[in-house]
Design goal:
The protein is built from 5 helices and 4 strands. The chain is mainly α.
Length: 102
């Protein structure tokens, strides 16, 4: 039987991302069991019920770029939250080699 995408598993995963680290949509999908779920990850993050409890700001695009449609205030707010953890953002991108979890 094929496993189905579970947004609650995604939210639990968000809580496990260490301070000062990020993951990409594709990495989150792969960690949940199917790298093809990257779009489902994005959709679930856009419906995140609690941005403090489930830190969706720690998820970035595959090239390290921030999300223009960040649900809790756009790219500026995502940048602010990342920088508050010491994650350097240049030109709305994060260096995945330095700050990536994987």
């Amino acid at each position: 039987m094929n496993k189905k995408f579970d947004r609650l598993e995604l939210y639990a995963l968000l809580q496990k991302i260490p301070y000062g680290k990020v993951i990409t949509y594709g990495q989150a999908a792969a960690l949940l069991g199917n790298k093809g779920w990257a779009r489902a990850v994005g959709n679930a993050l856009h419906r995140n019920p609690d941005g403090e409890k489930y830190p969706c700001y720690k998820v970035v695009h595959g090239d390290g770029s921030l999300c223009e449609a960040f649900v809790f205030g756009g790219v500026g707010e995502q940048r602010r939250r990342l920088e508050a953890e010491g994650i350097e953002v240049k030109n709305n991108k994060v260096d995945l080699k330095k700050y990536g979890l994987i």
